[in-house]
Amino acid sequence: MLLSKDPVDFPCVYATKGFKAHEHLYVFVDSEDPSSPRGVQSIAAALRQYISRSKTLGPNTSLVVLTPETNAVRSLEEYNRMFWDILHGVSKLDSQEWPADIPQDIDTPRWRFCFEGEQWFTVALTPAHRYRRSRRASCFCVLFQPKWVFDVLFSTPLKKQGAMDKVRGLLAVYDDVNISPEMKPYGDETGREYKQYFLLDENKPTARELLKGKIRV
Fold first, then answer.
1. How far apart are alpha carbons 201 and 133 in whole angstroms?
2. Model pTM?
3. DSSP 31-82
4. Cα separation, 154 vs 168, whole angstroms
5. Going by C-beta distance under 8 Å and a sequence separation of 6 or more, which residues neighbour residue 19?
6. By the 8 A CB rule, do 206 and 129 touch?
7. What does the pLDDT profile of the chain (217 residues) look like in tens digits?
8. Which residues face 66 on adjacent strands?
């Protein structure tokens, strides 16, 4: 679905707009384990290059990390572990200080992933997802979207509510599982953004959600 010629049914209409307008950049990590040191270095380098270009690409841009398709599909738990290993590894290669206005404690409502001074919303898609089709792809993928994309999209409370309602309405039809209760607005005191990054097929916590403390170790 991620690279479909006409992903008309995909719930994130803004990602679809970015795809059709050629606003996304893609990096291919030629490894079934992109959390390896070489894979992490490639992703960190791609993020740095992307930062320098992102604001010239369009309002719905993302960096999309792709890996090879494989018949040896892993479990969701394994992909989840791989995803968080990537974020930990990339964070260790960060050359800048963590933004002062973002908590380093992951278990807080205003934490989000940061790298090279930029704030990111990141999402994992896997071939192991069956029921949460919005998180399914033919290969393991990780998307990085800069915070400023959401600043533009949510520039007024009315636009923010309209965008969220549209996506949630499409998710309710597209997925074969109920919308995750973790899909809450950033800053909601009962929400944790990191829980939205990797969603399972069922609405239950992932093992990695037991992670506490700073992501930068």
1. 9
2. 0.88
3. SS-TTSHHHHHHHHHHHHHHHHHGGGT-TT--EEEE----SS---HHHHHHH
4. 15
5. 7
6. no
7. 454 544 446 667 777 888 888 999 999 999 989 999 999 999 999 999 999 999 999 999 999 999 999 999 999 999 999 999 999 999 999 999 999 999 988 889 999 999 999 999 999 999 999 999 999 999 999 999 999 998 887 778 887 788 788 888 888 888 999 999 888 877 778 789 999 999 999 887 765 544 444 454 3
8. 28, 141
Rounded Cα gap, residues 110 and 194, in angstroms: 10
| Terminal Cα-to-Cα distance of the chain (whole angstroms) | 35
Q: What is d(CA 28, CA 31) in angstroms, rounded to the nearest whole number?
A: 9
Q: How many CA atoms lie less than 13 Å away from 201 in the CB half-sphere? A: 13
